[in-house]
Structures are given as structure tokens and as C-alpha cells.
Design a protein that fits this description.
alpha+beta
Length: 197
């Protein structure tokens, strides 16, 4: 009995030491990978790097319901095919309240990013995800339907967007001319993607 008690006490001490509490400032900070997510796409044979968290833009729609919003998730990615890098922004349009505010509601082909004092116009790419080199959608929100819109860009533009202090988004030709405001910041992850490749 005495040996059993000593073994139990030893196990408790080992468990307590293995699960030492975090310092208060470490517990409140979310842990994120230091580098972009990277994988070899088994279908397209391209090396794909993407941000670990998207930038999420939102605009309110009080005409539909209280606290109703339309969202635009932007996922930055780079595709490496034998040393040839291509940078794209994958844009998912969605709404949790009204499906009319989703992907099919906006015919605009040009993405307009209002970054500090610049208006960056990025033309929609007509290729499919697979043609770009990505077999499956990256960081797609649960409420989205259909594939993302693809916008081809370059590394310098990604770097500028990641360092902009003020950022808003518009879709040219949109039925609603109001811009989307930054709702969840992912500029740091976008900067990491641009710096890594």
C-alpha cells in the first residue's frame, strides 16, 4: 500500500511539472505559425504557400436584419511551378443571414483595395483554381458556396497591402457601392507570405 501511495504521489508531481502554467502574457496571445502554410499539391504538382489566416472585410446590411453583414474573406497565396512564382488573392463572398448577399450577387470583375492613399485595382482572373495550381480551396469559410474569385497580383502589391495603415475593399460594378471595412486583420500574415517567397 505504501509503495502504491508513493507511485501515485510521484505521478502527480511529474504531471504537475509537465503542465506548468503559462505566464499571463503568453496565455492571452494567440499562437500562430511563424511562416505561411506550405504544401506540395498532389493534383497540380505545384508548391502552394498561403496565409495562415485570411483578412476578413465586412459591411453592415441593416436593411436585411439587425447585425446582418456581408463578408469578403481574402486569402493570399503563392504558387511555385518549377521556380516560377505566381501570386493570387482568393476572395470568398458570403453572408450568414441572406444568401442573396453571397458569391453570385456581385457581377464586378475588378477588386478595388483602398490602401492608405492608393486605390489598387486588381482584375479578376478567369482561370479555375486548378488552372492556377491549387486543387482545393484554401481557408474557405463555412458559409460560402462555390469557388472563390481569383485575382492575380504580385509580391510588391502584397507587401504594400500588408503595411498599409488603413484598408478598405470595394468591388467595382457592385450593386452596393458602399465599401467593405476591415473586420479581422490578416495583414501580418500577408506580409509573412510576401517575405517568404
Amino acid at each position: 500500500m505504501r509503495k502504491l501511495l508513493l507511485i501515485l504521489v510521484s505521478l502527480c508531481l511529474v504531471c504537475c511539472k509537465a503542465t506548468a502554467p503559462q505566464r499571463p502574457h503568453e496565455a492571452s496571445r494567440p499562437r500562430e505559425p511563424p511562416h505561411p502554410s506550405e504544401y506540395l499539391d498532389p493534383v497540380t504538382a505545384a508548391m502552394v504557400s498561403s496565409v495562415t489566416a485570411p483578412m476578413i472585410f465586412a459591411r453592415a446590411h441593416p436593411d436585411v436584419a439587425a447585425n446582418a453583414r456581408q463578408y469578403a474573406n481574402i486569402v493570399g497565396a503563392s504558387v511555385n511551378r518549377s521556380g516560377h512564382y505566381e501570386y493570387v488573392l482568393l476572395v470568398y463572398l458570403w453572408s450568414t443571414v441572406d444568401s442573396r448577399l453571397g458569391a453570385g450577387a456581385h457581377p464586378g470583375e475588378t477588386l478595388l483595395l483602398l490602401a492608405d492613399d492608393r486605390a489598387i485595382r486588381i482584375q479578376r482572373d478567369g482561370r479555375s483554381l486548378r488552372e492556377v495550381g491549387i486543387a482545393k480551396p484554401l481557408l474557405a469559410p463555412l458559409h460560402t458556396r462555390g469557388p472563390p474569385r481569383i485575382y492575380k497580383t504580385d509580391r510588391a502589391t502584397l507587401q504594400f497591402i500588408s503595411t498599409a495603415l488603413h484598408l478598405r475593399l470595394q468591388l467595382e460594378g457592385d450593386q452596393d457601392a458602399r465599401p467593405f471595412d476591415l473586420w479581422k486583420d490578416g495583414r501580418r500574415q500577408l506580409g509573412q507570405l510576401a517575405a517568404a517567397n
